[in-house]
Amino acid sequence: MPHADTARVLRLAAPFAVAVAAIAAGYGFSVTLSGYLVYLGISVIVACIAILGLGVVTGSAGMIALCQLTFAAVGAWFVSGLNVIGAPGGFVAWLAVGGVAAGAAGILVGLPALRLRGVNLAVVTLGLAAAADVALVQVQFPGTASGTFVPRPGPFADDRSYFVFSVIVLVACATTLYVLQHSRWGSSWKSVAFSERGTAAAGTSVPRSKLTAFAVSAALGGISGGLLAGQVGLALPASFTPLQSLALYVLSIMAGAYLIDMALFGALLWVAVPELLKRWGVPQDWGFVVFGALGVQALASGTNLGAVIRTTWWNRTAGRARRQAATRTLAAPVTDVAAQPPAAAPGGAPVLEVSNLSVSFGQVQALRDVNLAVPQNAVVGLIGPNGAGKSTLVDVISGFLPRAEGTVTLDGTSMAGLSPTRRARLGLRRTFQQDRVPPGLTVDAYVRFVARRRLSHDELAGTLEFFGCPPPRTRLSTVDVGTRRIIEVVGHLLARPRVMLLDEPAAGLSHDEHIALAERLRQVPHRFGVSVLLIEHDLDLVRSVCDTITVLDFGEVLAAGPQEEVLSDPAVLKAYMGETEML
Ligand code: ADP
Ligand code: MG
């Protein structure tokens, strides 16, 4: 489709066009603004790069990091130090080294984040910032004692041209970040922020997602610090205090710094508020109070100034996206499906085999000696009343409950000791009963992220259409939960796993949509070569889709076998009647 290709090329070219325009605008400012404003402009850019970094770790990946200026200090330290020893390469090379060194420091600081969350992570990172501050005051930056100034790069020696240089650095950082945000890394940050379990189930390593976020965030901090060293010549510990890191964090939350334009807005506030206070004769420390108040407002209301500005600004685009999402086709009749032959005959060695699984949560024995097999090309139903242990069984099989007893084998290979990420990569995929689909992504980015393989546009769009899902460019935040969970199924299906465990995929759908989904699931082995274990509540649906059925009740297998036998078993009917009466 040439039209789609043109649109794609335009979409890819847009950031680069913006980059060129930004550099041109920077040049324009540098020749028209007063010298004083140009100097403040450099400070805005330095702050903007640091805030962009915070946007990665806090805004995208959802973690708290209160030591961004410590990473900036690492960058400034390297630039100053390399200058003192006269390292080759000049300022630009030192700036890059500072960024890489800060990125490495970011990985070290990120290690605790693999275990800590929320307030604990905040305390650790703030403690680190405080310790680094004390150390910096003691030892000072290299060159301080001897008064060795950091020279600015050759053609950018005066303030006006250094401002242009800073704009170029900012544009390079922002463009790189834009590309990263639209890569697997960016998807993994947004995914891990929304659900660590969902990320692992998609075959992506949660630790790696967090550490790449920390590394990129800290590297941007380092570049910002290095740029500051070039601006002021001699960096001082007073520019990198924990209190300032804290204020910068608050500002990035308030501005919505994961959005590149909003990072610039945050940076303007960062420089303008103290500047205005100074002009009005108010002590600059009141700036922290202003940022604090704005931050409390942002955290308490769940919205932020940046988001408000952005939605007003982009209102028309957002309106269009909403209208697009409103077209739901989930319940559309599936004509081509009806014409398909039924699923290829199941049989052969089981793809998935589960033996003697037992799990208890304290006093509750959730599963006891459960055995189950999913043959090749089969859709196996797993039914049972609420609390029977169905979701727990899926958790055990997919590796989320490693302490369970019993064995799980995929194609005859034991899964013992393998993480959920590893199992997902080996072709054992599962979906969740709760919503674990990150709303920050587009359908396209999410499906590609989960599928973990190259997908042609036609394959992706075709499969979405087959399942009645909205088109790839739709934002997941505009899609209702029921449809989001079908998109989750599509993503895992396109990974072409050996087997998929679907935990009540139809929950949240209307009756018609329920039936339509059933018809499509019946085609999955035939169309995609994937075997399915389907957890489902609706007995009619199970009857129409599943070849064999296993019934769980109070954690034990009540019945298992071909569906007609199982569904006419009096014990099964009794368990279900009890449930119906309760409902
Ligand atoms: P189902 O999916 O069939 O509705 P579950 O597998 O969610 O059932 O739950 C089975 C039993 O295990 C229930 O009694 C539930 O309360 C208990 N259970 C599940 N997860 C936990 C947990 N993390 N901690 C304690 N009890 C749990
Ligand atoms: Mg359940």
UniProtKB/TrEMBL annotation:
Instruction: Provide GO CC annotations from the record.
Output: plasma membrane
Record localization: Cell membrane
Note the topology in the membrane: Multi-pass membrane protein
* One GO MF term: ATP hydrolysis activity
| Transmembrane parts of this sequence | 12-30, 36-57, 64-85, 91-114, 121-141, 161-180, 211-234, 246-271
Q: Does the keyword Zinc apply?
A: no
Question: Has keyword Plastid?
Answer: no
Give the domain of life.
Bacteria
Sorted keywords for this record are: ATP-binding, Cell membrane, Membrane, Nucleotide-binding, Transmembrane, Transmembrane helix, Transport
- Check the record and name the PROSITE patterns matching this protein: ABC_TRANSPORTER_2
The ABC transporter domain sits at 352-579
* Coiled-coil features, chain-numbered ranges: none
What name does the UniProt record give this protein? Answer: Branched-chain amino acid ABC transporter permease
